[in-house]
Amino acid sequence: MPLIDSHSLGMRNSQTNLLLVKDNLAAYFRREIISGRMVPGEKIVEVKYAKLLKISQTSVREAINILMAEGFVQKGSGRTAQVTRLTDEDISHSFELRALLEGYCARIVAQKKVDLRELEQIVADMRSAVECSNMEAYYERDLQFHFVLAELTGNGMLLQALKRIILPLFAFVVMRVHGERTQEEVCFRSLERHKRIVDALKTHDPVFAERLVTQSISTFLEDTRVVVSSGL
Length: 232
Hints:
The protein is mainly α and 232 residues long. The chain folds into two domains: 6-83, Arc Repressor Mutant, subunit A, CATH 1.10.10; 88-230, GntR ligand-binding domain-like (Four Helix Bundle (Hemerythrin (Met), subunit A)). Helix content is 75%, strand content 3%. Strands 1-3-2 form a three-stranded antiparallel β-sheet.
């Protein structure tokens, strides 16, 4: 008797195909958003794209869910999904919460005296990315830096809270600055501030680390405004 019968194999192949469809569709939407062909606030109507791309509406919905998790798409309860759009007020509020939460992260990490080599490697990768003018890679590493800082606290709920705040913000910035070069100087300054964060954590002084991170987040807000303005 075969270990996997033909019916089970067919089911498995079908599931694999569904995964490929939604992943490829998510990649398609992501490219359209980052390139600016789909603009912030634009609605993504499931039935429209299902007909246009000749795929199931379920596949479109699952692709949208992937993009929602990444911050590229927003969707209210029972409402049509739309490309993430943040107002100046949204950005300011996001950074206010980030300053509180990431300052607390820095306090805990400094107290715990954890291994910081992963953060150091991310900073090195950020430097390489900006030197190569690969802004998309730079923002990916930047995002990773802040998530790893939260992970090092050992508080999973803190990490999830930060993800809900940071993901839409980073996605919005990336889609607004695609193809621009004016933000490279800002990224170099931001890079140095990330390095100073790691140096502050190395002191194992929780008060100093918290204060420096809180101040850095405020500066990141100003940098973000400059970068977003350059992508207008």
